[in-house]
Amino acid sequence: MPAMILPSLITPALLSSIRRHPQLPSHSWYFIACVTLSMLNRPDEIPKVFNHVIERGAGNVDSAPGHEEKLKIARKTREALVKLAPIGGLPRTINALFSLKNVTASSLLDEPLRYSPTSRPIEVYDMPSSTILHRGQMYFDKVYGKVSKRVMAQMDRSGTEDLGITARLLYGYILSNTSVLTAAESSYVLMAGLIPQDVNPQLKGHLKGAINNGATLEDVKAVREIIIRICEASGMRRLDDTMPGGWGWREEVAKL
Q1: C-alpha dihedral over 119, 120, 122, 127, to 10 degrees?
Q2: What is the number of other CB atoms lying within 10 angstroms of the CB of residue 169?
Q3: Is residue 187 helix, strand or coil?
Q4: Cα–Cα distance measured from residue 190 to residue 39, given in angstroms and rounded to the nearest whole number
Q5: Do 226 and 24 touch, CB atoms closer than 8 A?
Q6: Which of these, 42, 29, 140, lies nearest to 88 by C-alpha position?
Q7: Rounded CA gap, 90 and 80, in Å?
Q8: Distance, CA of 67 to CA of 118 (rounded, Å)
Q9: How many CA atoms lie within 13 A of 185 on its CB side?
Q10: What does the pLDDT read at residue 177?
Q11: pTM
Q12: How many CB atoms lie within 10 A of CB 239?
């Protein structure tokens, strides 16, 4: 049986409304959109977003980017999809990155054994793990603020301390690396990964974490809004008592 042909999700009108949102942090709309699409299992729509930003630029008005700007866009998008993996699952990230690669010029790719904008290969193979894990703990503490010790202790006491170990590894080697995405931008990635999953308990922590990482309240509201727009375009909706399950949210999406 042939694969289903899904309806288009990213329309010119939706792209325009996202890109031109007046309160959205600069240089962020495209990677937030790509992460949301990946989490919605629509990696096939990522090329539309990427081609648009590569041709018209990352700002809210058209301005053809030069090579260095294109490279920045490509690297931010790839790093956002990598940072989705800890909360969205590696399969989503794999499919999204290969969909992105299919429409990325070879001059904008970072190939193995060459320059790494994140330096993760060096961190994995040449640096003491204690250094990276300490950085991750500091990042975790910044995100969760005064409740960070309680949150980590809860994971350690989840019935297996391996949950806490997993969190430490992911925060150390993936999330706390801010070479390409800032701490605030990394929080936007986590928001884009969590909102489609309908997991308010985790989302609440990362909305506050975005503020702790330097975002403004207006930034967080704008990012939340465009993520929800994309989700709604995919068919997500607020579920009610007559729907025991389905594609949507069981309660209002958490907000600050």
Answers
A1: 120
A2: 15
A3: helix
A4: 11
A5: yes
A6: 42
A7: 13
A8: 19
A9: 22
A10: 98
A11: 0.95
A12: 16
Q: What kind and span of H or E run contains 248? A: strand 248-249
Residue-wise pLDDT tens digits, 83-128: 999 999 999 999 999 999 999 999 999 999 889 999 999 999 999 9
Please answer whether residues 183 and 213 qualify as being in contact, where contact means their C-beta atoms are separated by less than 8 angstroms: yes
Residue 71, number of CB atoms within 10 A of its CB: 17
Is the distance from CB of 57 to CB of 30 less than 8 angstroms? Answer: no
Rounded CA-CA distance 169/165 in Å is 6
Which helix or strand (DSSP H or E) is residue 42 part of? none
Q: What does the alpha-carbon distance between residue 227 and residue 245 come to, in Å, rounded to a whole number?
A: 21
Q: Single out the residue of 35, 28, 37 nearest to residue 8, CA to CA.
A: 37
Residues of the chain with pLDDT under 50: none
Tokens 């939706």: give the residue: 14
Which parts of the chain fold into alpha helices (H)?
A: 12-19, 29-39, 46-56, 67-88, 90-101, 120-125, 129-144, 148-156, 162-170, 183-194, 200-212, 217-233
Contact 35, 192 (CB under 8 A): yes
Packed helices 29-39 and 90-101: angle between N→C axes, nearest 10 degrees: 120
Cβ-contact 56, 158 below 8 angstroms: no
Q: At 115, which amino acid appears? A: Y
How far, in Å, CA of 78 to CA of 57, rounded? Answer: 17
Residue 83 is which amino acid? K
Structure tokens belonging to residue 167? 């969190």
Burial of 220 (0-12, 13-18, 19+ CB in 10 A): buried
In contact, 6 and 44? CB cutoff 8 Å: yes
Across 86-103, b (16+ Cβ under 10 Å) vs e yields bbbeeebbebbbebbeee
